[in-house]
Amino acid sequence: MDAPLHIDRDGHRTRLKWHRGRRKAADPAFTGARIVEAMRLGASVEVDLVVHADHGFAILHDLTLERETTGRGRVRDTGAAALRQLRLRGNDGEPLPDRVMLLEDLCALLGSEPPHPEALLQLDFKQDASALDPLTVAGFASSVGPLLANLVLSGGDADANDVLTLAAPMLRTGYDPCYGPSLDRLRATGDYRRFTREALAAAPKAEIVYLHHEIVLAADRAGYDMIGAIHDAGRRVDAWTIRQVDDATLSQVGRLLALKADQITTDDPEGLFAAFDT
């Protein structure tokens, strides 16, 4: 099988993003070997960032340690040395041989294993700008500097993106509006046009807009092409997250491909690629 990088349909290429560094559904999240593999092959891959006690970032999704690692307590209260001693947990909750990585660890690893020119690593910041201080921002810029050509910063707080990219001005950005008041208002009103306008206005420099796939499909059923509207504004769309490959999700992905999503985030790139490899 070819590497699960993209699906081509009707002249449009949709990339498959390896969510949390997973190539297939059985993979654990955030392991260095898989992330390096993805970047070597030219894949799109996503990792999450959470601020730790020593003014840096851990490659973790949760703000607490228990679910993803062998540690306990808040990431924010845990120092770099302690984090590096923790092991990741697999999908079954059992400890893995793999240790928790910090952002600088991952960047150093990728520096020793040069990425494919088309590889794209999404750094998804899970907090807002209040979690950032000057030391944290400076450390971020130092870590990502050598890899800017292969990175995109994303998050649900446009202000946080602005703070971090001010220190790393060549870093590309994306924006996820599917959190907070704007999403609550969308659920109440069904006003997909307003939601799209506000998302574009909130992050005018964002190259990619990250949208929950069910919002895209709900807008489509209501007669509004959200992806088309964002394309008209000169941006790209990532539809997230297809967690498993089954009859229901294959139908959803088929429609996302017809709507020309630029990228689909999935926990099973290999399974999704195989299902559409015709």
From TrEMBL:
Q: Which InterPro entries match?
A: GP_PDE_dom, PLC-like_Pdiesterase_TIM-brl
SUPFAM superfamilies hit by this protein: PLC-like phosphodiesterases (SSF51695)
Where would I find the GP-PDE domain in this sequence?
35-270
Q: What is this protein called?
A: Glycerophosphodiester phosphodiesterase
